[in-house]
């Protein structure tokens, strides 16, 4: 048998072997690179093809009143998210979702573009989806790869005792790009909500909690198969609860008495600075902003001339009117410029230079001493009294009680107010642009003096405590605040307490209340009527009441309400009687 042998030279055989060896080495190198050196990266990519991480938002902390009544809690809403890279036919699937969700396709596409964060990351396209529409998505999920539902926590307001507390609680708003860029990376993403006003804003870090995550298994088309059992979910941590100083019953009663009016009221525990009630009217239902700020509603509120979004209690600026006669009196008593024996004749007006300054009682009060001037609120008496001091001395006493500066309450925004002194007047009007007659206006709370209702509540609280000043607060603290002592003589406090008591308890007093006068509650007050160039005057009442081992201070203003004695004082009396259960008066807590 003939056999043919193929002869391969040794050199060629060596070359072939070397090539095979090199190819094998390259394969080993690539294997090492993929399986060892770049294991983490490609493991993540492999997981991304079968695992979907769904962020679990953290429920915000609840907000409760001083007795544990829940004022703001959470409830869940459904939302739809998509992973853009898993959409097989984006246009077709968007058409389907437009139909099933009853949402405009352009809005869905705009949201997808807005919230797109990268490959394999979900983008929120619709929130607040009803159960019925969610069911349609679930029924057709095989036709909608890359589309899935999630639950989002949103604010819920139990409306306990009909409390709204809109301006205290504040509301949430979706984070914008500029805010997001200023945040620590990872804390927020587009689509998240954060506190925008009130306590929700100031205590955002305490309320928001920590997000969690859930891992879901998906097939090659991005359709969910189920929850992964080999990877533990990361539980979200709810935010911290806030326990407020607010008394829901008193808050409700105050809101109801101011309903339909424009104004504000602040009631403080004078012994601690704790805010028991804070109301600004008109207000708004917080539920309007709980699941996202509706643009039409926002524009409606923000353009409303009654300004329902404004917290008048801390941002409203008003002349204090005759309630400021208390400070003029304190300044005069401290300097020894007046006693109860000094009197003036009130004829209903007072001539100063070439100007006439009027009294609210056109026929005049007759011969008036200090006590009667406070009880009956005689302007002419204070026109003459204030001429015994200069404007800077008067302003120094005003500032001593915190006017012209924020109180430091735990809210994100607060107005300082305006206190006129010589430097201020020179800057505003020029050295020769104002006259000493300006001081006559200031003495009765008119002219270049503007205050907030909260500042007035703090002031009358200091009066109640005879010089002890506590910082106003809305959130309960475990430690006591430092007390600031206002250096006023005991004799001055005795005089002020006697006169303010007579305003409420003596016939002829501008805030006389027969029922309070006959009760065990020691009620004090001072009314004010603040002239308003834009309409009817504003009605003021400031006062305090002692009973059952408690002392509360109250400040109340009704815009364009007329006189303090006819409008503000009766409301304040009802609040005092409700709080101390005088007669038939009750709080919402009793109902």
TrEMBL record:
List, in alphabetical order, the GO biological process terms annotated in this UniProt record.
cell wall organization; peptidoglycan biosynthetic process; proteolysis; regulation of cell shape
Concerning Pfam families, the annotation shows: PBP_dimer, Transpeptidase
Q: Which residues form the Penicillin-binding protein transpeptidase domain?
A: 263-576
Keywords noted in UniProt: Cell inner membrane, Cell membrane, Cell shape, Cell wall biogenesis/degradation, Hydrolase, Membrane, Peptidoglycan synthesis, Protease, Transmembrane, Transmembrane helix
How does the entry describe its membrane topology? Single-pass membrane protein
Record's keyword annotation contains Zinc: no
Domain Penicillin-binding protein dimerisation: start-end pairs? 56-225
Where does the record place it?
Cell membrane; Membrane
**Main subcellular location of this protein, as a coarse class:** membrane
According to UniProt, the name of this protein is Penicillin-binding protein 2
Species this protein is from:
marine metagenome
């Amino acid at each position: 048998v003939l056999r043919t042998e193929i002869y391969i030279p040794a050199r060629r055989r060596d070359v072939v072997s070397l090539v095979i060896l090199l190819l094998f080495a390259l394969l080993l190198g690539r294997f090492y690179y993929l399986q060892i050196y770049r294991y983490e990266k490609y493991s993540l990519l492999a997981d991304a093809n079968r695992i979907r991480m769904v962020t679990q938002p953290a429920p915000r902390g609840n907000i409760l009143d001083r007795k544990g009544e829940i004022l703001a809690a959470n409830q869940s809403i459904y939302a739809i998210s998509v992973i853009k890279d898993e959409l097989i036919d984006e246009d077709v699937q968007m058409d389907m979702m437009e139909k099933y969700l009853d949402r405009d396709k352009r809005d869905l596409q705009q949201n997808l573009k807005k919230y797109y964060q990268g490959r394999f990351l979900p983008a929120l396209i619709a929130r607040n989806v009803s159960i019925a529409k969610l069911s349609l998505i679930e029924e057709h999920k095989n036709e909608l790869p890359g589309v899935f539902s999630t639950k989002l926590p949103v604010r819920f307001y139990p409306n306990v005792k009909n409390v709204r507390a809109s301006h205290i609680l504040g509301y949430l708003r979706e984070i914008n790009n500029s805010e997001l860029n200023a945040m620590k990376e990872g804390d927020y993403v587009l689509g998240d909500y954060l506190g925008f006003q009130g306590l929700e804003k100031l205590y955002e870090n305490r309320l928001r909690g920590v997000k969690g995550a859930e891992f879901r298994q998906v097939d090659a088309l991005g359709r969910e198969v189920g929850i992964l059992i080999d990877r533990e979910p990361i539980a979200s941590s709810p935010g911290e609860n806030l326990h407020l100083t607010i008394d829901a019953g008193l808050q409700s009663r105050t809101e109801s008495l101011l309903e339909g009016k424009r104004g504000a009221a602040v009631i403080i525990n004078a012994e601690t600075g704790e805010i028991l009630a804070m109301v600004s009217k008109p207000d708004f239902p917080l539920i309007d902003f709980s699941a996202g700020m509706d643009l039409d509603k926002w524009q409606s509120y923000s353009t409303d001339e009654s300004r329902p979004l404004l917290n008048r209690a801390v941002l409203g600026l008003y002349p204090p009117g005759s309630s400021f006669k208390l400070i003029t009196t304190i300044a005069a008593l401290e300097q020894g410029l007046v006693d109860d024996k000094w009197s003036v004749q009130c004829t209903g007006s007072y001539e100063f230079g070439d100007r006439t300054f009027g009294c609210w009682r056109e026929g005049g009060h007759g011969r008036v001493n200090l006590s009667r001037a406070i009880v009956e609120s005689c302007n002419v008496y204070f026109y003459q009294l204030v001429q015994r001091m200069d404007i800077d001395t008067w302003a120094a006493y005003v500032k001593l009680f915190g006017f012209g500066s924020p109180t430091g309450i735990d809210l994100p925004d607060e107005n300082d107010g305006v206190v006129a002194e010589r430097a201020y007047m020179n800057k505003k009007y020029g050295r020769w642009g104002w006259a000493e007659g300006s001081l006559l206006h200031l003495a009765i709370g008119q002219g270049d003096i503007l205050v907030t209702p909260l500042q007035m509540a703090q002031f009358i609280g200091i009066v109640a405590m005879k010089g002890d000043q506590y910082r106003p607060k809305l959130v309960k603290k475990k430690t006591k605040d430092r007390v600031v002592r206002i250096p006023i003589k005991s004799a001055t406090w005795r005089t002020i307490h006697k006169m303010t008591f007579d305003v409420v308890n003596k016939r002829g007093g501008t805030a006389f209340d027969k029922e309070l006068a006959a009760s065990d509650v020691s009620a004090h007050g001072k009314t004010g009527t603040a002239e308003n160039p834009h309409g009817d005057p504003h009605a003021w009442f400031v006062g305090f009441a002692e009973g059952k081992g408690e002392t509360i201070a109250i400040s109340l203003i009704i815009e364009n309400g007329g006189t303090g004695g006819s409008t503000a004082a009766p409301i304040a009396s009802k609040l005092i009687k409700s709080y101390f259960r005088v007669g038939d008066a009750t709080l919402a807590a009793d109902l």
